[in-house]
Amino acid sequence: MPRSPGKIFRDGLTSTATTLVEALTIPQTNDDTAETLTHPFHTYPARLHPATAKVLVELVGEGAKANQPIVDPFCGSGTVLVEARAAGHRAIGIDLNPLAVLVARAKTWTVPPRRRTALKNTAHEIFGTVLAAGKAARRAGAAPAPMRKPTGFDPNARNRRLARWFAPHVRRELETIATEIENRRADDPQMADVLLASLSAILYKVSSRSSDTDGTWVERNVARGNAARLFLQRVELLVAGLEDLSRQHGPLPEVFELDTRRMGEVVPEGTAAGIVTSPPYAGTYDYAEHQRLRFDFFGLRHRDLDAGELGSRRAFEADPPEAYREWKKSLSESIDTISRALAPKRAAALVVGDSMVHGRALYAMDDLRDALTSDLVIEAWASQERPMMGTAERHAFGARPKAEHIIVLRRT
Ligand SMILES: C[S@@+](CC[C@H](N)C(=O)[O-])C[C@H]1O[C@@H](n2cnc3c(N)ncnc32)[C@H](O)[C@@H]1O
User: Fold this and answer.
1) CA-to-CA distance for 36 and 208, rounded, in angstroms?
2) Does 296 reside within a domain?
3) CA distances (Å), origin 122, targets 144, 187, 284, 380
């Protein structure tokens, strides 16, 4: 969410609308929440601001029964799940992106203290092994450490793709860390995934990719041993955040790699205490592309995301009218699954944003209203104007401003 202030509009039940205005504007005044718990662990495109998530979880979670979950059906890196867990709720997350699932699970890994100690100790062990392997490799005549060959990935094609993004010594170091993690998988698969998420958190920082959302090549000088050091620091940051998150008693959140339209398979009808989510903005991001380098490095399968990602930029670029029709259809299906999941009288808070595709403004609230089912009523909404990015956007939006919105829907 951008942090710039903009004009605010609101309507509906006064108490709810007032809370929604707070949720929209809090990122402009509150820097602290984003630095707490496990929020700073891993970057993610279009991440919900943690302070907004906190306000919305409080709103929809009020009066929830002990075992009724708070659900985020587009959970991304798990911001809502962290806040729901911090408030002591049962939390369920769903996302079609395997990388999002890996990260969200790591950020909510509220296991007993001895498991966190073991995680930290393992990271120290791996750090030591990787530094020793680096020294050994620099001795005259030493054979270089072998590259991993994730199953289902053509090793030559994978090597060609990765060679462009990492200096050779960095790549070797990353491969050795990943090999050390995989060597421990049979003993402790959950911990192996948390370690992989920690490696993922530093992967772009030691690569020549600018950022998650910017795929341009940049020169980066990474000293020997630095990737291993950053990895260790990232595990320590995670462990500290998990310690804070575990202070509140509550069950371990569940995160599923699934298309939200199949939510009924993991959230039985009429059982959710509340839903807080931020669905993709139409034609704005390309979650599959943003994580391509990570998918290649870790050997993560992403065919389902490539095919089922809602509102992706690549779909809108390929065939805008068809993509818009598909977007409206998939939004209706998603809202339908949300209404089925909610317990009677419980609420969903949705954060959505206007976008521009091929010179045309897409108004998120209009699309959402069209998608509503008869058993959901709009309790309140709040919108805040967002700055236009350049003349094309000014032209597309004209007199009706571009905005970000939060809407609360209540099940009848
Ligand atoms: C705006 S992001 C959510 C960010 C999240 N709130 C956070 O704080 O990290 C939208 C998410 O929707 C996911 N997504 C897109 N299509 C999906 C689908 N069909 N089913 C489930 N998740 C999907 C994307 O992978 C992305 O993680």
Assistant:
1) 29
2) no
3) 24, 12, 39, 48
pTM for this model (two decimals) = 0.96
- What's the pLDDT score for residue 3? 52
Q: Which atom of ligand 1 is nearest to the CA of 259?
A: 20
> 229: CA distance to ligand 1 center in Å?
31
Backbone φ and ψ for 206, nearest 5 degrees, come out as -105, 10
Tell me what pLDDT residue 388 has.
Answer: 87
For ligand 1, residues with CB inside 6 Å are 44, 46-48, 74, 76-77, 79, 94-97, 100, 259-260, 278, 280, 287, 308-310
Task: Tell me how far apart the alpha carbons of residues 169 and 193 are, in angstroms, rounded to a whole number.
Answer: 24
Closest C-alpha to ligand 1, atom 1: 280
Percentage of the chain lying above the pLDDT 70 cut: 99
pLDDT in tens, 74-96: 999 999 999 999 999 999 999 99
Kindly give the number of the ligand 1 atom that is closest to the alpha carbon of 309.
16
Asked whether residue 106 is domain-assigned, the answer is no
Ligand 1 centre to CA of 72 (Å) is 9
User: Do both 63 and 31 map to the same domain?
Assistant: yes
**For range 55-60, the mean pLDDT:** 98
Which of 39, 291, 309 has most ligand 1 atoms within 8 Å of CB, for mutation?
309
- Residues of the domain holding 160: 113-245
**Six-digit token string for 396:** 């597309």
The DSSP code for 148 is: P
- Compute, in angstroms, the gap from residue 255 CA to the centroid of ligand 1: 12
Residue 348 forms part of a structural domain: yes
Same-domain check for residues 85 and 121: no
Give burial (CB, 10 Å; 0-12/13-18/19+) of 206.
Answer: buried
CA of 109 to the centre of ligand 1 (A): 20
Assess whether 85 and 131 both reside in one domain.
no
Residue 294 lies in a domain: no
pLDDT digits (tens, 9 = 90+) for 309-368: 999 999 999 999 999 999 999 999 999 999 999 999 999 999 999 999 989 999 999 999
Report which protein residue has its CA nearest ligand 1's atom 15: 309
Ligand 1 center to 140 CA (angstroms): 49
Tens of pLDDT, residue by residue over 198-212, are: 999 999 999 999 998
